[in-house]
Specification:
Chain lengths: 195, 540
C-alpha cells in the first residue's frame, strides 16, 4: 500500500488537523508515514500545503515528486489547482468549493470550479454547508473534507472513524460525536460523487 | 517507544534522552519547535507527575549570542547544553561560537543550526556547514528524523570525548517533517556539576588561545578518523564504480526515492564532517571517473572535494548546472540529475494566482501602519526602515509602508545612518522582541549621537512570527528606553486601534518634528496570542 497525498488550503484553515487524523489511523495500521508541513511566515493567510506520504514500505523522500500524488485534498478550490502538477494524471482531487477570498485578484469562481471539474477524478463539495447540515460548526468543515477523501485513502472507513475518536478524545464525548458526524456527512456525499 | 515526531521534536527528545541540562535559543523558523517541545515536556513534568529527574533549563534567550554564551557556561560547569537557532542566528552568535571552538567544552555542547534553503521564511539561504568548517569543529547532518534523534546522544558523546562543540545542521524539510521515531526506554541521567580540568582553557588570552588553537588544529586528523570510522558515513561500491554519487544529509532520501539499483553507481552517504577522506579516496581507487555531489544548501562539499580527488575525476553538482545553483533540492531535481526521465504530469493551471501571506485581520501592526502611512505622506521624502517579524509584511499590499528590511535590529541603526546622512524623517519600525534581540544597542548609538530618528516599537507583547513565544522585554520597554537615555518625554505609548487613529498620528507628527531621538511604542497584544489566552481563560 502506498498513498501520496497533498493537503492544501490557506494558512489557518486547518489542513494539519486532517493530516493528524490520517496520521493517527495510519500509525494504528502499522504504516510508514512522512508528513512535511509548512510553518512560519506562510501561515499568515498565505497558501499552505502539506505532503503526506503513507506506505507499507519505508518512505525515503519527505516530499512528493511531481506527477506522484494519488490525491489532493484541499479546503479551497483554487488552492487545489495550485498543485495539479504534483498529481498523477489519473489522481483524485477532493476539494471544498467555497473560495477563501483574502486577495484582490481572485479569479472568477465559476471558472475555477470548471477547471476542477475538468479532472475526471474529482469530488467538489460545499463542506461548510455539509458541516452545518450535520449539526456541526463550520470549523468542522475540514472533517467533512476528510470524510470525503476516505474512499480514496486506502484506509478503511471504520478505522478512520476510530482515528477521529482517538484524536478528539481529549476534548470530550460531545466534540468526538460532532466530528464523527461531520466525517460521515463528507463520506456519504463523496461516495455519491464517486458513483 | 514509537512516536510520530517532527524532525525538530526528534532532536529535542534526543537531547532530553541524552541527559540534557539546558536548552538555549531565540525563536527562528525552522528551529523554534525544538525549544518549544522541551518546554512542553518540562511543563508536563512539573504539573502531571512529580519526578526525580532534574529540571531542564528551557527559557527563551534574548538573542542567539546570549543563548550561545549561556550554553557555554552550562558546558563549563560540566553539564550538557543545546543551543538552537535558524541559520542566520549563527551570524548573531558567531563571536561566541567561533571562540567556543577555541575554548573547547567541559560538558557536551551541541549547536543546532536549522537552515532554510529556498528561503521559505528567511532572508537568505546561507549554509551553516561553512561555520563548522570555519571553526574547524565536527558537524553532523542527519538524513532523517530517526537519525536526528540518534545523533543527539552520539553528538554529546563525541563532544565530550573530543572536548569540542559539535554543530548539528538540519534544513527546513527535516525540521518540519514528521515521521515515526523509535526512542529509548532508558534515558541517560544528566551530568553532575564538575569544573573544567584546566580552567585556563576558557581564558582566551593570546598565550592560552594560541595553545588551544594549536590543540584544535592538531586534533583535526582525529576528527576525520571519527568521520571515517563511527559508521555514520557509509560507502558502497557499485557494480559500475566509474559513476559515483556523494550525498549529504537529506539529499540521500531524494536519491533513494528515484534510484534504480541497476544503475550500479558507487554511493557515498555523508552525515558527519569533516569529510571522510579515506572513503573518498576509496571511491576514487574503485575507479570513479565522475562524482555527482547531491547536497542540500550551498555547494560546500562540491567545492571541498575538488581538492581531494585527482583532476581527472569530474566533479558535478550545483556548480556545474547538473543541479539547480540555488533553492532546496526536490525529488524532481535529483531525478533529473541522475539522468532519469520526469514522471508524466498534469499541466500547470494558469488560472491560479499567488496568495502571499498577510497580517491577520485585527492585528495591531495594521493600525500602526495605517497611521504611520498617513503621517509619512505629509513629508516630502520619508524613509521607513523595517525589521524582521510579522510587520515585515507591511512591505506588501495594501501598506507598502517600509523601504528596507535587512536583519534583526537593522531598522534602528539604518535609520540612524540615514539621519546621519541628512535624511528626515528617518523612522525605524521594529517589533518588541526584535528590539530587545538586537535593537537596544543601536538605540544607545542614537541617543549618544542625539540622532534625529523616531524608533517605532510595534509592541504585540510576544514573538509573533514564530508563533507567539515570550518576548524578553515585555512590560519594561519604556524603562529600557529611558534607561538607555531617551528623554522620558520622548518615550510615547499609543494603542494601535482604529478609534485612536488621530491621537497616534498626532504623537507621530510631534516626535518626527522633534530634533532628536524619540521612541513611540504602539502596544496591543498579538491577535493570535490573545485568542489563545481567551480560550485558556474560558477553560479554567
Amino acid at each position: 500500500m502506498k498513498k501520496d497525498i497533498i493537503l492544501a488550503g490557506v494558512g489557518g484553515q486547518g489542513i494539519l488537523s486532517i493530516a493528524t487524523v490520517i496520521g493517527e489511523a495510519a500509525l494504528q495500521e502499522g504504516l510508514y508515514l512522512k508528513q512535511a508541513e509548512v510553518h512560519g511566515m506562510s501561515q499568515r493567510g498565505g497558501d499552505v500545503q502539506s505532503n503526506l506520504r503513507l506506505s507499507s514500505e519505508p518512505i525515503m523522500s519527505d516530499l512528493i515528486p511531481k506527477g506522484g500524488a494519488d490525491l489532493i485534498i484541499s479546503l479551497e478550490p483554487m488552492e487545489a489547482l495550485r498543485y495539479v502538477e504534483y498529481l498523477k494524471p489519473d489522481g483524485w482531487i477532493v476539494t471544498s468549493c467555497v473560495p477563501f477570498l483574502n486577495i484582490p485578484n481572485y479569479p472568477e469562481l465559476e471558472q475555477v470550479l470548471a477547471r476542477v471539474r475538468a479532472y475526471e477524478h474529482h469530488v467538489l463539495l460545499d463542506v461548510e454547508a455539509l458541516a452545518k447540515g450535520a449539526g456541526a460548526p463550520t470549523q468542522a468543515a475540514n472533517m467533512v473534507l476528510l470524510g470525503a477523501a476516505i474512499p480514496m485513502l486506502g484506509i478503511e472507513h471504520d478505522k478512520m472513524i476510530a482515528g477521529v475518536a482517538r484524536v478528539f478524545a481529549r476534548k470530550g464525548e460531545a466534540v468526538v460525536e460532532t466530528n464523527i458526524k461531520a466525517v460521515e456527512a463528507g463520506f456519504n456525499s463523496s461516495v455519491k460523487c464517486k458513483v | 517507544m514509537k512516536h510520530l515526531l517532527l524532525g525538530d521534536e526528534a532532536i529535542a527528545q534526543g537531547a532530553i534522552d541524552a541527559g540534557l541540562s539546558g536548552v538555549y535559543a531565540y525563536p527562528g523558523t525552522p528551529s523554534t519547535e525544538i525549544t518549544e517541545y522541551i518546554q512542553l515536556v518540562e511543563s508536563r513534568k512539573s504539573k502531571d507527575r512529580p519526578t526525580d529527574s532534574k529540571p531542564i533549563h528551557c527559557r527563551w534567550a534574548t538573542n542567539e549570542k546570549t543563548a550561545m554564551e549561556a550554553a557555554l557556561g552550562m558546558s563549563y560547569m560540566g553539564k550538557r547544553a543545546l543551543v538552537c537557532m535558524k541559520h542566520v542566528g549563527m551570524n548573531v552568535c558567531a563571536d561566541a561560537f567561533m571562540n567556543a571552538a577555541i575554548t573547547g567544552v567541559n560538558g557536551g555542547l551541541i549547536v543546532l543550526a536549522a537552515d532554510d534553503p529556498s528561503m521559505h521564511s528567511s532572508q537568505n539561504e546561507q549554509d551553516s556547514r561553512f561555520y563548522a568548517k570555519f571553526a574547524i569543529i565536527p558537524c553532523l547532518e542527519p538524513s532523517n528524523q530517526q537519525e536526528a534523534y540518534d545523533m543527539m546522544a552520539y553528538g554529546y558523546e563525541l563532544s565530550e570525548q573530543l572536548k569540542t562543540p559539535v554543530l548539528m545542521r538540519v534544513t527546513t524539510r527535516m525540521a518540519h517533517s514528521r515521521a515515526v521515531v523509535n526512542t529509548t526506554d532508558t534515558p541517560r541521567a544528566q551530568n553532575e556539576m564538575s569544573m573544567p580540568q584546566d580552567a585556563n582553557h576558557f581564558i582566551l588570552l593570546p598565550a592560552f588561545a594560541k595553545r588551544n588553537y594549536a590543540e584544535l588544529v592538531a586534533a583535526q586528523p582525529l576528527f576525520v578518523a571519527h568521520s571515517e570510522q563511527d559508521g555514520h558515513n557509509a560507502y558502497t561500491r557499485g557494480a559500475r564504480p566509474e559513476k559515483a554519487i556523494l550525498t549529504t544529509g537529506i539529499a540521500y532520501n531524494y536519491l533513494m526515492e528515484n534510484y534504480d539499483p541497476s544503475m550500479g553507481c558507487s554511493i557515498l552517504r555523508v552525515t558527519q564532517y569533516p569529510l571522510p577522506e579515506a572513503l573518498i579516496a576509496q571511491m576514487v581507487k574503485d575507479g570513479a571517473k565522475e562524482v555527482l555531489v547531491i547536497e542540500e544548501g550551498q555547494p560546500v562539499v562540491e567545492e571541498l572535494i575538488r581538492g581531494m580527488v585527482p583532476s581527472s575525476v569530474a566533479v558535478k553538482g550545483r556548480l556545474t548546472g547538473n543541479l539547480p545553483r540555488m533553492g532546496e533540492l526536490t525529488p524532481d531535481s535529483v531525478r533529473k540529475a541522475i539522468g532519469l526521465e520526469a514522471l508524466p504530469v498534469n499541466e500547470k493551471e494558469t488560472i491560479v494566482v499567488g496568495r502571499p501571506p498577510a497580517l491577520c485581520q485585527g492585528c495591531g501592526h495594521r493600525d500602526m501602519y495605517a497611521a504611520l502611512n498617513e503621517v509619512a505622506r505629509e513629508y516630502p521624502n520619508p524613509r521607513i526602515f523595517g525589521d524582521i517579524g510579522c510587520y515585515t509584511l507591511g512591505a506588501l499590499s495594501p501598506f507598502h509602508a517600509i523601504h528596507a528590511c535587512v536583519e534583526m535590529g537593522a531598522s534602528v541603526t539604518m535609520a540612524k545612518g540615514a539621519a546621519d546622512a541628512g535624511q528626515h524623517p528617518a523612522i525605524a519600525v521594529i517589533g518588541d522582541s526584535t528590539f530587545t534581540h538586537s535593537g537596544m544597542t543601536g538605540l544607545l548609538d542614537c541617543v549618544n549621537a542625539n540622532a534625529n530618528v523616531v524608533v517605532l516599537i510595534s509592541d504585540n507583547l510576544t514573538t509573533g512570527m514564530t508563533g507567539g513565544q515570550d518576548s524578553a522585554g515585555t512590560g519594561r520597554l519604556e524603562q529600557i528606553c529611558c534607561g538607555i537615555g531617551v528623554a522620558p518625554e520622548h518615550v510615547r505609548v499609543v494603542v494601535p486601534l482604529p478609534k485612536n487613529m488621530e491621537e497616534i498620528k498626532q504623537v507621530l507628527r510631534e516626535e518626527i518634528d522633534y530634533n532628536g531621538t524619540s521612541v513611540v511604542i504602539a502596544r496591543r497584544e498579538c491577535i493570535q496570542t490573545l485568542k489563545r489566552h481567551l480560550k485558556a481563560a474560558k477553560r479554567s
